[in-house]
Amino acid sequence: MSTEEILAGLAKAVIDGDTDKAVQLANKVLEARLDPYKAMMDGCGAGMKVVGEKYQNGEMFIPEILLSAEAMYAVMDILGPHIRVEDIPYTGKVVAGVIEGDIHDIGKNLLVMLLKASGFEVVDLGRDVAVKDFVQKAKDEKAEIIAMSTLMTTTAPGMKRVIDILQEEGIRDKVKTIIGGAAVSKEFAKTIGADAYGEEVADGIKIIKDLMMAIKRGR
User: Fold this and answer.
1) Which among 11, 102, 117, 201 could bridge 46 via Cys, Cβ 3.0 to 4.6 Å?
2) CATH for 93-218, among 3.20.190.10, 3.40.50.2000, 3.40.50.280, 3.40.1190.20?
């Protein structure tokens, strides 16, 4: 199989929730000595983008999303240990979680894994995280960035509450915020005062790196 066929197959396996096929292709990635990071991003990441879009459009439902998640996690288990931690100068600490009321953590889990592979220390709060917990954990851990995600429009306003609390506690200028997920947009990020928006996991990784570099330069 060519690289393109393997990546396309991974994306399709995730969309279809076909764990057996996903595992088979993940092993193909290793056998072919392909970049496991690229396989996660261009294979699983591409597939999860489609899953998110289908969910938003009412073409996929929770049971199907759970199957897609199972397929992606199976690939993560195989490829994760082979993703090389980069020796980069702009590492820092990120608090990540899915906003209160939302239990869809597939994209967040992929982001966390790839941030760790890029040398970041990540405090993973999980899913359905209370807005105050984001702020408290950022303070406790002295994190530079809070990354929030949601797949539901009904829970997206919680992201603004996190930013409001940062402002109220006088630490808004010390903690950068990035939001992502199918329910939010660049325009929404601007509206609530977030520092950045990541349309896809790959975007989020790059933006978080850029934010961290800006933070380091400002010190």
Assistant:
1) 11
2) 3.40.50.280
Q: How far apart are CA 110 and CA 23, in angstroms?
A: 16
Per-residue CA distances from 46 to 39, 104, 147 (Å): 10, 17, 20
Q: What are phi and psi of 155, to 5 degrees?
A: -100, -10
**Plot region of 128 (φ>0 → left; ψ -120 to 50 → alpha; else → beta):** left
pLDDT in tens, the chain (219 residues): 899 999 999 999 999 999 999 999 999 999 999 999 889 889 998 888 888 778 768 898 878 888 998 998 899 899 988 887 654 444 789 999 999 999 988 889 888 877 876 778 999 999 999 999 999 999 999 999 999 999 999 999 999 999 999 999 999 999 999 999 989 999 999 999 999 999 888 788 889 989 998 888 875
